[in-house]
């Protein structure tokens, strides 16, 4: 790309291309923000995809997007990686009307559910990209443009042999940080303590990030308590929040 802020030769993009081309001996595992799962679609979700997607869903494209034009204004912007069924996403967007939110999710049931919530709550500050967030960042977002990035309850990949599939790894964070504006934040939450510890180690080791707390952070007021999380807390399960900011 001609835009100097948009480096298509990032390590993530290069690794993806090398694997897909089958070059250079043992292929690198392609970094992805999701795992493909099958799921049933409700009639309301199907209808939302048919009727609301043209208004609120942005197609993935291999070039930068004019997000000011998409939202019809200039405002701080937050990207969410993997919003699931979108309940927390919609609640945060309603609570923070001064911010614009870009939600990335690959599963149609979740996209349909969030489209319904956008329409019901009339949330003009929320759009959806139904695509891998890693590629959305690399292709559609200008570097230094994000006020924040949310990653709530990502797949913890419990088994040791699957830990390499966890999203929060040093190469991913190294690629992510340049998309944050100076002072921009990365907020992750998980209910799996070993993954929380790994996230804390990875994020603390990134010199361009600064922890906002002494270890794990208190749950910010804007992050709603999900039904899944509330049930876990009643059973004595922990939840860990991490909130780091990009150094100026």
TrEMBL record:
<dbReference type="InterPro" id="IPR029063">
    <property type="entry name" value="SAM-dependent_MTases_sf"/>
</dbReference>
<keyword id="KW-0489">Methyltransferase</keyword>
<dbReference type="InterPro" id="IPR003358">
    <property type="entry name" value="tRNA_(Gua-N-7)_MeTrfase_Trmb"/>
</dbReference>
<comment type="function">
    <text>Catalyzes the formation of N(7)-methylguanine at position 46 (m7G46) in tRNA.</text>
</comment>
<feature type="binding site">
    <location>
        <position position="80"/>
    </location>
    <ligand>
        <name>S-adenosyl-L-methionine</name>
    </ligand>
</feature>
<dbReference type="GO" id="GO:0008176">
    <property type="term" value="F:tRNA (guanine(46)-N7)-methyltransferase activity"/>
</dbReference>
<dbReference type="InterPro" id="IPR055361">
    <property type="entry name" value="tRNA_methyltr_TrmB_bact"/>
</dbReference>
<dbReference type="Pfam" id="PF02390">
    <property type="entry name" value="Methyltransf_4"/>
</dbReference>
<dbReference type="GO" id="GO:0043527">
    <property type="term" value="C:tRNA methyltransferase complex"/>
</dbReference>
<comment type="similarity">
    <text>Belongs to the class I-like SAM-binding methyltransferase superfamily. TrmB family.</text>
</comment>
<protein>
    <recommendedName>
        <fullName>tRNA (guanine-N(7)-)-methyltransferase</fullName>
        <ecNumber>2.1.1.33</ecNumber>
    </recommendedName>
</protein>
<feature type="binding site">
    <location>
        <position position="155"/>
    </location>
    <ligand>
        <name>S-adenosyl-L-methionine</name>
    </ligand>
</feature>
<keyword id="KW-0949">S-adenosyl-L-methionine</keyword>
<feature type="binding site">
    <location>
        <position position="132"/>
    </location>
    <ligand>
        <name>S-adenosyl-L-methionine</name>
    </ligand>
</feature>
<keyword id="KW-0819">tRNA processing</keyword>
<feature type="binding site">
    <location>
        <position position="159"/>
    </location>
    <ligand>
        <name>substrate</name>
    </ligand>
</feature>
<feature type="binding site">
    <location>
        <position position="191"/>
    </location>
    <ligand>
        <name>substrate</name>
    </ligand>
</feature>
<comment type="pathway">
    <text>tRNA modification; N(7)-methylguanine-tRNA biosynthesis.</text>
</comment>
<feature type="region of interest" description="Disordered">
    <location>
        <begin position="1"/>
        <end position="28"/>
    </location>
</feature>
<keyword id="KW-0808">Transferase</keyword>
<feature type="binding site">
    <location>
        <position position="105"/>
    </location>
    <ligand>
        <name>S-adenosyl-L-methionine</name>
    </ligand>
</feature>
<feature type="binding site">
    <location>
        <begin position="226"/>
        <end position="229"/>
    </location>
    <ligand>
        <name>substrate</name>
    </ligand>
</feature>
């Amino acid at each position: 790309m001609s835009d100097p802020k948009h480096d298509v030769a990032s390590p993530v993009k290069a690794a993806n291309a090398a694997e897909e081309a089958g070059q250079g001996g043992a292929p690198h595992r392609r970094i992805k923000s999701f795992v493909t799962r099958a799921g049933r679609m409700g009639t309301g979700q199907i209808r939302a995809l048919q009727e609301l997607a043209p208004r609120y869903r942005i197609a993935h494209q291999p070039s930068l997007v004019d997000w000011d034009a998409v939202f019809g204004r200039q405002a701080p912007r937050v990207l969410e990686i993997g919003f699931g069924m979108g309940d927390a996403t919609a609640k945060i967007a309603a609570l923070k009307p001064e911010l614009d939110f870009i939600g990335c999710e690959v599963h149609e049931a979740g996209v349909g559910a969030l489209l319904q919530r956008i329409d019901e709550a009339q949330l003009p500050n929320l759009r959806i990209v139904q695509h891998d967030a890693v590629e959305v960042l690399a292709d559609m977002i200008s570097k230094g443009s994000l006020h924040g990035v949310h990653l709530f309850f990502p797949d913890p990949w419990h088994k040791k042999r699957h830990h390499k599939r966890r999203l929060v790894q040093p190469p991913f964070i190294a690629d992510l940080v340049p998309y944050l504006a100076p002072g921009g934040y990365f907020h992750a939450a998980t209910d799996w303590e070993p993954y929380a510890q790994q996230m804390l180690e990875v994020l603390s080791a990134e010199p361009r990030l600064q922890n906002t707390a002494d270890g794990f952070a208190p749950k910010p007021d804007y992050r709603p308590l999900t039904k899944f999380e509330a049930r876990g807390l009643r059973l004595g399960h922990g939840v860990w929040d991490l909130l780091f900011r990009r150094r100026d």
